[in-house]
Amino acid sequence: MRARAGALVVALLAGLLVLLPSGTASAGTAPDYPEFPYPQTTYSEPQRGQFHFSSRSGWMNDPNGLVFANGEYHFFYQHNPHGLEWDTMHWGHATSPDLVHWTQKPIALEPGVHPGTLFSGAGVVDRNNTSGLKTGAYDPIVVFSNTDGVNVHYSNDNGRTFQSWDKGREVIDIPEESRDPKVFWDQARGRWTLVVWSNRQGNGVYFYTSPNLRDWTYASRYQASWLFECPDMFPLQLAGRQRWVLTDASGEYVVGDFDGTSFRTDWTAPQRMDFGATGAGGDFYAAQVFNDAPGGRVVQMAWQGGNRGSVWTGNASFPAELALVKTPDGPRVTRTPVPELDSLAAGGRTVRDKVVGPATTDPFARVKADTYRLTATFDVSGATARRFGFGLHTRADGSADHTVVYDTVAQTLDGKPLAPRGGKIALDVLVDRGQLEIFADGGRFSYTRNVDFDSGADSLGLRTFAEGGTVTLRKAELTQLSTSWGRGEPTLESNLAGPWRAARGSWSDVSGGKRGSASGDGFYLSNRRGADAVYQGDITLDSARAGGLTFRADTGGAGYTATLDTGGTLKLWRPGRDIAVVGAPVGPGETHHLKVRTDGPRIRVWLDHGAQPLIDATDDTYPEGLFGANVYAGAATVQNLHVGETEFAGFTAGRWNSRGGTWTSTPEGLRGRARGDAFYLSDRTGGDFDYEGDLTVTNGAATGLTFRADATGAGYTATLDTSGVLKLWRPGRDIAVHRTPVTEGRSYHVKVRAEGPRIRVWLGGAADPVIDATDPTYGSGFFGVNAFDGNVLATNHRNS
To answer: For 14, what's the count of Cα atoms within 13 Å in the CB-facing half-sphere?
Structure first.
């Protein structure tokens, strides 16, 4: 549960007055971060995997920083969001509740915002806050990247934004070529371990240990000629004993023991985890397991580089659960698809005890399937067939996009060695539009490939065959799989249940939330119903005539809507009636906060955090219904659609007003984004007072408390600047400067006391002010918040 955002507090000593006054963004700068550069897609392009993750657009390669954090899976990956080839690496980001339904999120790490080379790396969840980086309700997600050394980035808002530790200083300096750090928690010794590839006198990895993710000590080096790039290391149980698996980018691995300092194995050569073509751009490369997967599961995803389409390049393999089993040749890793895949099941067919041969009837002759799972067990103990298997995506002329073939003489499956077990061959085949994954022998056999399947209506056949004799198909089950896309919201922040759907108009994802466009009324509706509630959100009228919050609505959007209109009104309406209309100056491009409270037939509406509702009306037409958003005659953007008392709680005032930048209200507090100086001003003024609040520079330069200001924001501001100062300034003059570290993502409590020309500023809970200055320029004016060149957050978590 997240704490409710608190108030900026003003204790007036004297002279208080209350007044009630009648883009395309470029990547690489803090005011535009986090970037969401993705065009709309239905994820239905040819060869786009329907249950394999691919980036919404752009290039992707290595999985990075796979973690289960704060109730969901996070998949980060190497990414060029602006082109279809490798270039200028970012870290892409997607989330999933179940490893199947992925939602593209904004960029996680971005050049120009985060220092260092943002190449491959890893992530952990610091559940015990060993790093001391935690600042809020979420467990920090801490990720590691860079080349020829390691730097650290961390997130305290569940991956929405990341800050760089110590301005990107390398926590490990490696003089020779190195890259791809992987970090994990060593439970037995209660500390962190980092393994990183380097080419010092040949391929190998360094081991480092740390108590806190920030301070690292060299432990050992493991040298191996086969071990090239992207190391991963994880424990697996075998016969009640913990063993450690060390892998490289090509999926080669050895099994050994780890004593907290060194890795040792008696293997003289590695095994292959998957038979897919390796090398950058191959079928199986740079695989990584999730840290902190629930239940101690070890789940792995790899880069499949061979898949590409009109707007994307590369995809991820389907998540596979790993285990360790005994074999006559020693322990071996198994890979099996995670069982959550069953959530996509959409019907199928089961076949039992069928003899397959040249003269028999194909049991799947009439089947048509596009994306599916095919499990089959063949009894080869009495087989006379030289070859048997399945033709996938077949056509009337007998051709197929791929044929899965078992050779009984060579004992190979698709040319790779596979001996029968107990006289049987057991297959588990995943067929997607651009991906094929074949598992066999309980996961001991794994073969990941990119195959361009033709999804045309005449290419959806499935053929069972045997050549040179017969084989018995003991059981085969075809399960058609529906698409996994479209369940989540990439940019709309909300606590309302989905899936959301457009009732009317078109709705697209943009960096600022959800943008709706309609010629008349358009509605975007959640899956949550309610009667009495507090419902609120931020509305930006782009080109729209009006936009607002819809509630107690039916599936077509008919219900109540509180609308802001560029004609200068705030209106509560339902189909056929304007219930209440009040004046409210609203301009195109402005962002405003609306809050609605329903109590039976009574409906109240607040605007921009005002203490009093501007509308207090009664209507009993709709007693309950869906929550959503509305746009009318143009385009508008909605954000932070929440049920509950989650708004920014400023001190008692009328409306707050934006003077530059974009200001939105989130459960964490007031969020501001600005290029240059921007202000968010209350309509309350004062001369002598105490004014205090908690301030965070999420990413970028500075934020502060503004006071004694005019309607443009010109007045005094006590500013926290990430260059390392707390500064009291007014237009044209820095009045006083106190040097102090200011870290991105950290919350700082600032208090100002103004008594005539004397102005004092406190930082944190210190008894004495760090600034005590005199300036007579402004005697009274508005209170507010300032943002400068970045993203900021204003909250108050103190007890007072």
So the answer is: 5
Are the beta carbons of 505 and 545 closer than 8 angstroms?
no
The CA-based diameter of the chain, rounded to the nearest angstrom, is 102
CA distances in angstroms from 344 to 101, 364, 454, 633, 770, listed in the order given: 9, 21, 21, 38, 60
> Which one from 32, 62, 370, 683 is the annotated catalytic residue?
62
642 and 528 Cβ atoms separated by less than 8 Å: no
CA atoms within 13 A on the CB side of 741: 7
What are the structure tokens assigned to 108, written together?
Answer: 């996680």
Does the pLDDT value for residue 17 go beyond 90? no
pLDDT, one tens digit per residue, over 186-203 is 999 999 999 999 999 899
CB 742 within 8 A of CB 726: yes
Report the residue count for the chain: 800
* 426: confidence class by pLDDT, cuts 50, 70, 90: very high
**Quick check: bond before 499 cis, omega within 30?**
yes
Cβ contacts of 403 within 8 Å, gap of 6 or more: 389, 390, 391, 392
Structure confidence by residue, pLDDT tens digits, 63-85: 999 999 999 999 999 999 999 99
* Residue with the two structure tokens 């570290």: 741
Q: What angle do CA 290, 30, 540 make, to 5 degrees?
A: 100
Report the distance separating Cα 440 and Cα 419, nearest Å: 10
- Cβ partners under 8 Å of residue 627, min gap 6: 496, 525, 526, 528, 529, 530, 533, 535, 549, 550, 551, 553, 641, 643
CB 356 within 8 A of CB 471: yes
Omega before residue 34 within 30° of 0, cis: yes
**Rounded CA gap, 706 and 723, in Å?**
19
The neighbouring-strand residues paired with 792 are 672, 697
62 in active site: yes
Residue pair 664/591 in contact (Cβ under 8 Å)? The answer is: yes
Question: Does residue 284 contact residue 277 with C-beta atoms inside 8 Å?
Answer: yes
341: three-class secondary structure by DSSP: helix
Q: Are 786 and 703 in contact (CB under 8 A)?
A: yes
- For the chain, the C-alpha Rg in angstroms (whole number) is 30
Tokens of 329: 């040749």
Rounded to whole angstroms, the Cα distance separating 745 from 132 reads: 13
Element (H, E) at 9: strand 9-14
Residue 477: burial class (beta carbons within 10 Å; 0-12, 13-18, 19+): middle
